[in-house]
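Hey, I'm writing a tutorial for new members on how sequence and structure tokens pair up, and I'd like a real worked example in the thread rather than a made-up one. If someone can provide the structure for the chain below, I'll link this post from the tutorial.
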Amino acid sequence: MDTEIIRIINKALDGGLLDKKEIMALLSVENLSPEAFAIQQAGRAFTSQLCGGEAEIHAHIGLDAAPCPNDCKFCSFAASNKIFRTHEVIPLEQVIAEAQAMEAAGANALYLVTTVHYGEEKFLETAQAVRAGLSTDVPLIANVPDFDEDYARELVRIGIAGVYHVVRLGEGVFTRCKVETRLKTMEAAKSAGLVLGNCIDPIGPEHTPEELADLILLARDFEVGFSGAMRRNTVPGTEFERYGNISYGRLATYAGATALATGPGIRGNCTHEPSQLCGQAGANIMWAERGTSPRDTATETTRGLSVDQVREIYFDTDWPVHEGPSQFYPPYSAR
């Protein structure tokens, strides 16, 4: 066993903040090596300690699909990928029904996810209608295109608890979004009082430990509510098809390493798509999915799991599931 890797793991477990070189070392270990399994085991122990030994099921509801001008090449909605030719919107009554079903099944947080075509005002109207249809304090989270601080305060006003927003791998190169714009949105969300959900994504086999480490340090600097590791599920026909995907075994090591590297101030560790291997390595936030998905070519995703299916993954990896509103976002009654 590499003594330097063990030293780095123990430093993280003792609450020390890892530097970039140390993070890169964790991310560079050989797949299926003793060091990789040590990182996974330590990530699980660390996250479990920070979160009271509980996992959460978060729920993604995609509201629309469109040829999006932000043109993120890894996304099925990218205009240049020519998968979606028109703007297709999930009917409001269906969105509300999906939210109610996921709430009833025990989802700890509900995410409403849109393309740039959906529009800010329409999102506010939809979110308020969904909120009115819910019967518990389950928090609503916005996963929407870039916005300013005025809009962030509008999200707070209608009861949105947080946003999922990140600087993606290849931002500004394989997307038409500017890194500085993504950062301004994250700053606006924090300034308005929204909890910022985060992940290192979308990871492909071509991404280097340094690229991943830079985004882990960015998440730590922003004091996000949670971070984690998400692999790219390569959409057929896109330019990333030549790279393919990383394995879930490799992603599990990244999940464990991210948990250790983000430190004791960031309690949650997410992954997507749901995976037993990543759960075993410390990922305690996974998503059920309904509606549209940037990883799918169907208007209504056939890839996404149900709340009960995610719960079964947690059962198989010995994670008790938290009951009630998320630990990572304030419940609606607290807004």
